[in-house]
Amino acid sequence: MSSPHETLRNTAIVFSLRRTPVFAGLPDDDLAMVAEFSLLKTYRKGEYLFRQRETAHGFFIVRRGMINVHRVGADGREQVIHLFRPGESFAENSLVNDAGYLTDARSVGESEVILVPKWEFLQILRQRADIALRILASMSQHMRGLIASLESVTLKDSETRLMNWILRRCPKPISHKPAEVAIGMTKTMLSGELGTRQETLSRTLAKLREAGLITVRGRTLKIPDPLKLRQAFRSHLADGRD
Questions:
Q1: DSSP-derived 3-state class of residue 184
Q2: Which of 136, 8, 14, 30 lies closest to 63 in space, CA to CA?
Q3: Stretch 42-58: mean pLDDT, rounded?
Q4: Which domains, ranges and CATH numbers included, belong to the chain?
Q5: pLDDT tier at 242 (50, 70, 90 boundaries)?
Q6: Which of the 8 DSSP states describes residue 21?
Q7: Phi, psi angles (nearest 5°) of residue 173
Q8: pLDDT digit string (tens) for 86-114?
């Protein structure tokens, strides 16, 4: 019989699994089965969950906090791939990859995650095609996000990259109706995601603000006219500016 502590722990894990696209819609019995062998882990600010090429022990689901998944380039600069928030999963590639983790993962602040161990979960996948398909869909979603991130970084100048970043998160980019976009991170993290420096990001934000394309309120960007911002972005692309 499970102890009260184990019962509480499993209940917390099941609740989080249910909120994750990989497991959404699965019966409670299936979620409880996964919860039995999953691990709750907490991390301090700046603590690494794993480093690139380390042996992969499984994939993760964020319960609380934020996880910065990134790679470090040859020049030593950190390129943020994605900032994972509660309800999101990452490192599912570890299920089919024996070469170790492909990135670094670091806790942005105090964080709590669920580690779903690789070998125990693979046993379930061999018996449950429906869960295997969900994992494939999740990996595909992460791949689309990675491609979008890489496409953004390849845009030549920081102003174009920032406009692209804002428009991708704007609820209605083809509209004259004002909109808001939550930055959801520090300027340091945003500059890392855009592949630029913090001082360059600050200058770029100021430039867009002076042009009347955005206003900044704390960690929220207000867009007076999303369509006007989109037209400016397309103009930058057409100019092919460096």
A1: coil
A2: 14
A3: 94
A4: 4-154 (2.60.120.10), 158-239 (1.10.10.10)
A5: very low
A6: T
A7: -70, -20
A8: 988 899 888 888 889 989 999 998 999 99
Confidence of residue 10 (pLDDT cuts 50, 70, 90): confident
Q: What is the dihedral of CA 83, 89, 93, 99, to 10 degrees?
A: 70
d(CA 199, CA 188): 9
More confident position, 159 or 236: 159
Record the tokens describing residue 179, joined without a space: 């909109």
47 Cβ contact list (under 8 Å, min separation 6): 106, 107
Q: Name residue, tokens 């061999």.
A: 126
pTM of this structure? 0.69
Contact yes or no for 179/226 (Cβ under 8 A) = yes
| Burial zone of 13 (CB within 10 Å; 0-12 exposed, 13-18 middle, 19+ buried) | buried
Residue 96 one-letter amino acid: V
Question: Of 20, 37, 43, 17, whose CA–CA distance to 28 is shortest?
Answer: 17
198 or 115: whose pLDDT is higher? 115
Q: How far apart are CA 152 and CA 81, in angstroms?
A: 11
CB 116 within 8 A of CB 38: yes
